[in-house]
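Re: [help] complex structure
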Amino acid sequence: MNKKIISGISGIFVAMLLGALIMALQGYQPFETYAALFSYSLGDFFSLATTLQNSVPLILTGLSASIAFASGPVNLGQPGQFLMGALFATIGGLYVDLPPILMVPFLILLAMLGGALWSGIAALLRQWFGMSEFITTLMLNMIADFFTYWAITYPFYDQAAFSPMTPLINKSGWLPEFGEFNSSVIVMLLAFAGVWFVFTRLTAGYEWRITGQNSLFARLGGCDINKNYMTVMLLTGALAGLAGGLVIMAGPHRFLKGIGANYAWDGVMIAMVANNGLIATVLYGLFFATLQTGALGMELITAVPSEFIQVLQAAIVLIIVAGREYLDIFMDRTAARRKAKERSA
Amino acid sequence: MVDNIIEMNNIVKVFPPSLVALDNVTVDFRKGEIHAIVGENGAGKSTLMKVLYGMEERSAGEIIHRGKPIHFKQPGDAIANGIGMVHQEILLIPEYTVWENVVLGVEPKNFFGRLDAAKAQQQVAQKIDEFQFNLNPIAKVEDISVAARQKVEILKLLFRNVSVLILDEPTAVLTPQEIPQLFSELSRSKENGHTILFISHHLDEVIELSDRTTVLRKGQKIATVDTASTSKRELAQMMVGREVIFTSLAEKGHPGEVVLSVENLNHEHHNGHHFLKDIHFQVRAGEIVGVAGVEGNGQFELVNSIMGLLEHTRGKISVQGKDITNLPILDRRKLISFVSQDRSKMGASVTASIRENSIMTHHRLNTRLTRWRGRLMLKEATQKFTQEIEQQFAVSMGSMDNPFRSLSGGNQQKVILGRELLLNSPFVLLDQPTRGLDVGSIEYVHQQILKMRDEQRAILLISADLEELFRLSDRILVLHRGSIVANLPTDQTNLEEVGILMLEGKEKADE
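Output below.
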């Protein structure tokens, strides 16, 4: 655990130094830029609340990827599952009206159902025809992309709008806000607590983890591999779908073109940086949300374009992932050299 | 003055981070001798040879070859200097002929710079004659026996004019009948002035073949002795650091009622190849039934069909009268304890913790470990359970939350054995349970197997080691090309008879 924290913090530090160097080379003021970046994402209560809300889709898709990768299935369908979850929640919000206490959970469940349905298709294709989910989930992303685009252009089109989007969902389905603080963060935390408990404390989670490391061993040990595969695919699809639903319910309250942004791929990236650890996924999700939220302020105050944040993110990913492996090798080699010297002396 | 061709002085090898594989080893090899390197698993035999051959870089120390210090960066440097190594696993191209494999990389060229096939064939044939290797140079490697392939490997090195031959457990892949031939070939190359270094587990062959023997233990050299002046017992004692008792084991089992019954088991490939053909046998409670056979004659398929990994089999398998032929694996595991031959692929997840490995299968069958009808795992209960395995089976582990791969091979096997035995199932399937273990661990595993038998469990023991089968089994089945060609009570047969049956698969006379 300690080593992970050291490699994470030192990785971020080195990447930011590298970013400062790039900025300095281009004639910007690195110190000022970073100050603007963090004051706009963490500086006051409003910024902090925005950062937290922005972290929700990153963390949920990140958890989806982490759990899938750590359990074996290569579910890369988070973008599609996100969109299907968002579409399901939107449709429910347009045609159903319940009191908020029922409406919010209802839409949340619909969103999860939408995501799970989409990953479930990939899972069934694998179980029936042996098709690799690595390919099918990627293909289903394209289908979801164009399917939702069609849905908001034709059947659910808002007549009053000039570009493809749905009307606003019923007010009862809007997530409550407490001042600046949006309750989607609470839903995200509950979802995290739930999957963390399943993954680390339940028998099912134990079987998933072992299957992810050695599926033949798990199978010989009596684990039902097929059932576990199905459950993991459905659960991770539901998490990505939940992310989509929460974005609709917390933010624009309607399905707009491009609502998925890059959330899901960022989530996959966060899972990789976090080495599929659940707590690490949450922490890195918060950090990346900080960068992305601060990017806007950075652009406003300084001349540095907000795209610079993508450079910084890429540098962080590469340095942490490469550094994690190299730190181990380096420490091992140093220890070996010291020991060899001792023995031959 | 004795002529040393190679001197290895104060060799240290540390595998990162801190595994000391060789600890200040100093050893010399004389010109024209056969020098055996013996030691338990993990004693550093292979590492020492790989350091010499340039496959592993040494951490400290020096190597002197013909009076000059050398430092090989890669095996090619070693071969260029006349030092060659034959590995345990054979590395040839099966689709190529013998001569093509031998000349690969050093082909004689014709005027146009192309391969001169006629000349190459003739040169290879000449080498075969010179060493009386009895090989057909134009046979394809995939069509010749394992023993012949090994000869091709040795020939490859001789063709490159190697003067020092290193052999890593050369007899491990051979049947008992093929070993004397290898020995006579090695003796012949020695007479031709070659120096032979060979690694072995089998003390009999060390005594028979070598001039001198070096014993390693835990990375340190214990001694180099003239083989003529030592004994098997003395070598074994040096290897393990205590006295080992070589006994053919105590009394036989007292077979009770039938536990495992396999009836007319068949498995064939769609191209008509029979992997299993009319397999029919029983194992009784309190009985150890051994399965002998050259690897690849149906053992793998037999194990997989009992465990439920193999589809499209015909026949019936039952345990204690219950038909398990079509049961899911978990239901089979209620009746079967299973120790696989490959710990890292089937027997454990080496990256998971020791605790997580200890509770596999128990997590479904042992109600003590879970709550909520098996859904919630109780961490404390699993810790207690792991401690039980640690104590009952004398495992030496650091923290039980360390990864499984941090354990030595012997300790890994103890954890697996412990886990499987605590299932308390009536039938125990052991697939090469001592493969890759050192002498001390093998002894321990054998004691545990006999203890299981005395608890009146039914045991099916598959092993490539005939001595192990003869030591433990009450009956021996011989598998040959997917059929059981013999079912012999151990006290009415001998190594030679079983060896011949394994190779020739003579049909059953009666029944």
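Chain B has a mean pLDDT of 86.
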